[in-house]
Amino acid sequence: MAYDNVLANPSDFDFQVQQLGPGEHANPSTHEVFVSDEETIAFSSQIKNLKKQFESGGSLPAFEKAGARQKIFHRPESTKAAIITCGGLCPGLNNVIKGLVNVLEESYGVEHILGIRYGYKGLTRQSQHPPIRLTSSSVDQIHKQGGTILGSSRGNQDPEEIVDELQAREINILFCIGGDGTLKGAQAIAEAANRRNAGISVVGVPKTIDNDLGFVEKTFGFETSVQIAADIITSAHTEAEGAENGIGIVKLMGRDSGFITATASLANSVVDFCLIPETPFEVDGPSSINEAIQTRLAQNNHAVIVVAEGAGQDLFKDTQTRIDASGNVLKDDIGELLKTKIVAHFSERGIPISIKYLDPSYHIRSVAANASDAVFCYLLAEYAVHAGMSGKTNLVIGYWNNFFTHVPIHLATKERRMVELDSALWRGVVSATQQNPLKRQSTAA
Questions:
Q1: What per-residue confidence (pLDDT) applies to 438?
Q2: Active-site residue (options: 14, 140, 158, 210)
Q3: What is the helix, strand, coil percentage profile of the chain, to 5?
Q4: Closest CA to 270 of 245, 243, 236
Q5: Widest CA span of the chain, in angstroms?
Q6: What is the pTM assigned to this prediction?
Q7: What's the CA angle centered on 216, arms 418 and 407, to 5 degrees?
Q8: Cα–Cα dist 4/7, whole Å
Q9: Is 210 a catalytic residue?
Q10: What is d(CA 42, CA 438) in angstroms, rounded to the nearest whole number?
C-alpha cells in the first residue's frame, strides 16, 4: 500500500469508528486508565507530512486511540460474548483466546463466554459442533500449545444466518480472530447486525502471519514466524556450506507480501538472495537469478536463497488460477520451480551442485508463540475487550506508532500492505545479501 496517497487525499479514507450507542454504564474495572474517543493517534509520524496537511487546510488523518472507556455500552451482567478463530493457523491464537477470556471475566465480570468451533461455519445451522463454555480456569494452560483450541475453517457463510444464530444465543459481542478474509466476514456480520439494530459489537483481532493488513503495522504471530524461519535458514546454510557448490532454498509464507521473507533474511545474514512478491525477477538468461547464483558459487562455494511463496508467480505459464475456500488465489510452488531451473542451468554447464529445498510453512504456523508475541497477543486481546464492551463495532484492533488503535475494518482490508522497496527493511536486505540494486528483470542480478 502506498500510504502517501492517504496524506495526499485524506478524504478518501474514513477513520471514523462505528459506535452502537452512548456508554451509559460505569466501567467496573478498578485498575484502568481511561481514554476518550477524542484521543487520537496521528497516521503520519513525520513532521513534513503533518505540515503538508496543515498547510493545505486538510484534516489530519488519525486513528481513534484504543483503551478502556469510563462509560461502557454493554452491561457486564447481561453480556454474552463469543470468540471465533478463522483461516490458517498462526502462532498466538490460543494466547489471544486466553487473553479475551481473562479480561472479560476478571476485568468486566462477564460470566457467559462461548468459544465457537471451526470458524464461521460454527455459527450456522449446518454446524455439528456446539459452542463450548470458556472460563479463566479452562483456558489457563492453552497458551503453551500451538494452533487453536476452537479449531478453524475457511469459507464464506451467510452473514444473515450468522446474525440469526447470534441473536438466538443472545450473544452481544463477537470477537473475530483472523486475517483479511475473516475481517471481511466480520464486516458483513456487523453490517447485517446494524441493519437489524441488533446491538451486537463485532470486534476483530488481526491474525495474519504475512503481516499484510492495511493500516496495521504489526500482527500477532509474525515475530514468532520470523524467529523460527531464521533458525530454518541456518539449517539451509549449514547444508549448503557442507557440500561442494551447495545451494539451499527456503520457501516462506507470503502470498502477496514479503515481510516474513525479508525480515527473516535480515535477521539471519547468511542469505545470499531474498526473493519477494513485490519484485519481479528472471530465472534464466542475462541478469537472471541463475547467473547471479553461479557468480556467488564461484566466490563462496555455496549460496542460500530465501523466497516468499507468492514470489515469481509470473514465471508460471498457462497455469489455471486456483482459489481456496476463502477466495484466496492459490500460488504455484516457486520453490520447486527454482530448484528445477537451477538444476537444469548447472547441468547444462557441467557444473556439479548439491541442492536442498526446505518448505517449513506448516511447521512455522503451528508452533506456540514466543515471549514477545505472547505479550502482544494479550495486549491485543485486552484492547479488543475494551472496544467491545464500550459498544464499538465493525473495527479491528490495530497497532500504529507504538499505540494500539481502533481501525475500521474497511480500512484494514482495503489493500494489502506490502514491502516498500525504498523502506529501511528492504534496503537492509539488499545491503546484507549484497544482491545488486533491483532492476526490472531481476531481484538478484
A1: 39
A2: 210
A3: 35, 20, 45
A4: 236
A5: 78
A6: 0.90
A7: 135
A8: 5
A9: yes
A10: 33
Rounded (10°) CA dihedral 143, 129, 186, 202? -70
For residue 443, is pLDDT > 50? no
Confidence of residue 444 (pLDDT cuts 50, 70, 90): very low
Cβ neighbors of 273 (< 8 A, separation 6 or more) are: 289, 292, 293, 296, 303, 304, 305, 306, 433, 435, 443, 444
Mean pLDDT over each residue of the chain, to the nearest integer: 90
Question: How many residues in the chain?
Answer: 445
Amino acid at 420: E
In order of their start, the domains of the chain are 4-220+369-412 (3.40.50.450), 224-366+422-433 (3.40.50.460)
CA-based nearest residue to 139, from 108, 205, 94: 94
Handedness of CA 98, 104, 109, 115 (dihedral sign): negative
Q: Is the pLDDT of residue 192 over 60?
A: yes
Q: DSSP letters of 5-45?
A: HHHH-GGGS--PPEESS---EE---SS-----TT-EEES--
